[in-house]
Fold this protein.
Amino acid sequence: MNDAAIEAIKKRTSENLLRIGAVFFRPDAPFTWASGIKSPVYCDNRLTLTAPVVREELESDIADTVREFFPDCELLMGTSTAGIAHAAIAAHILELPMGYVRSGAKDHGRQNQIEGKLTRGEKTVVIEDLISTGGSVIETVEALRAAGADVLGVVSIFTYGMKRGIDRLSAANVVNHSLTDFDTTVKIAVEHGYIKWSDVERLLAFRDNPSDETWITKRGGEL
């Protein structure tokens, strides 16, 4: 997969996510994350599951990305809960087994955290829908590694490209390939009229440092 093919996937994914409202920008009326951070963007990739055409393209691109970057993959593992459906569909395309990793072990039955058969040393790729600071997907990878999986890396749908997330993934020795990212989606959103050029600097300021909320009161040309 050459650079042009990768860029085509990024562009197509961003256009699709914007068109169905899976990514929605609202810089003048920020959303609030569970952490309390104010965000100018809301991302809900679950909506791709209810849009058949988008879903077909998305899952095909996930499968192609696994083939390209992790050709030795033997097993897909979805993150709980948003990555499960994507892992299942991509595994069907790739004719691979799949499972998923809970956020914590069950308190009943066999008390599993990992659902599905995992053989020690099995070459595994994690399927994630969204990466911001990287904490959740790293926890998934660590659980799989502790169970004996050889985790080759992660394929995600969307990443914010935040420095903290990039640094944490690097420190945990986790390779991630996302279908698209925040910067590409911002560019496409401007081109298609979802946001104004005057919003771009504010949005990128948020991406650079989400904890610094001064972007909220800034306007184009002030940063």
Notes: Strands lie at 23-25, 31-32, 38-39, 41-43, 75-79, 98-101, 114-115, 123-131, 150-159, 176-181.
